[in-house]
Write a structure and sequence with these properties.
- The chain contains two helices and no strands.
- It is mainly alpha-helical.
- The chain is flat, with a radius of gyration of 29 Å.
Length: 102
């Protein structure tokens, strides 16, 4: 959405007709205007965001997201210093398909 907002003025400015020195106004690619496509894209994105927000709030109000669920996904935070290294598994057989160490 941010990219659309940033590039829309540049695309619209490129399509502004100029009548300087008797030259014809430049046309957009294929002779089609850019502004209607940008406007409908922005309107569709905004309508989709509003629609999904309404569905989310409706599901929340109906009880689709319980306050105290019976099951919560286990999340383990493990510092990188505690990661297993090669010395952790000294008896492991060499993997013939593993990366070669030359």
């Amino acid at each position: 959405m941010l990219a659309l907002a940033l590039f829309a003025p540049a695309l619209a400015a490129a399509n502004v007709p100029t009548q300087a020195a008797g030259y014809a106004a430049p046309q957009a690619a294929g002779g089609r205007a850019v502004e209607p496509a940008l406007i409908w894209t922005a309107a569709g994105a905004a309508a989709g965001a509003i629609l999904f927000s309404i569905f989310y709030l409706l599901k929340r109000r109906v009880g689709g997201f319980p306050r105290n669920p019976q099951w919560i996904a286990p999340i383990t935070i493990m510092p990188s210093k505690d990661f297993p290294d090669e010395g952790t598994f000294p008896d492991a057989p060499l993997d013939p398909h593993g990366p070669s160490h030359h």
